[in-house]
Amino acid sequence: MTMQECPECKNPVSSEAKACPHCGADRSKGRPWGLYFGVALALVASIAGYGVYTGHRSSAEVEAAAKARIQELGHPPPDIFITRYVKRGSTTYTCGSGSYRNDSGEIQVVLFVAMQTGPMLDWLGIHVEGEKTFAATYTDVCI
Questions:
Q1: Which range marks the domain in which residue 15 is found?
Q2: Computed from CA positions of residues 57, 128, 69, 103, in that sequence, does the dihedral angle turn out positive or negative?
Q3: What does the buried/exposed string (b/e) look like for 20-35 if buried means 16 or more CB atoms within 10 Å of the residue's CB?
Q4: For range 72-101, the mean pLDDT
Q5: Shared domain check, 75 and 47
Q6: d(Cα 52, Cα 35) in Å, to the nearest integer?
Q7: Residues 44 and 67 grouped into a single domain
Q8: What is the C-alpha separation between 95 and 68, in angstroms, rounded?
Q9: Less crowded by CB within 10 Å, the N or C end of the chain?
């Protein structure tokens, strides 16, 4: 038995070892199969993740749209938080909440649901605390 230099990590390895104990390089063929497997696994995970999220707006875009819509309704800029994502068939619902201080300094709560069936935002519903019309929709979709 002699010690040889691993072609991958340059550490000493026994000539009888099938793999480098330092980096896992396959010594029988001189290729680091562990590295190739890791790269292949990362590639598959990336492609799968891309497939899941392709065509859907990012959280930041939904938050910006909700903030803009709330301001269009005449309210101050709210702090917005995404609370839940709901997938039903090909439709994705992004549920969220926010809050702002009204003119009298009281904290107002805002709920919103963004509906998307493709790359565009199809619908954005806003419910300001005290309005009952939207609460049922938010409850049906997000809870």
A1: 3-53
A2: negative
A3: beebbbbbeeeebeee
A4: 86
A5: no
A6: 26
A7: no
A8: 16
A9: N
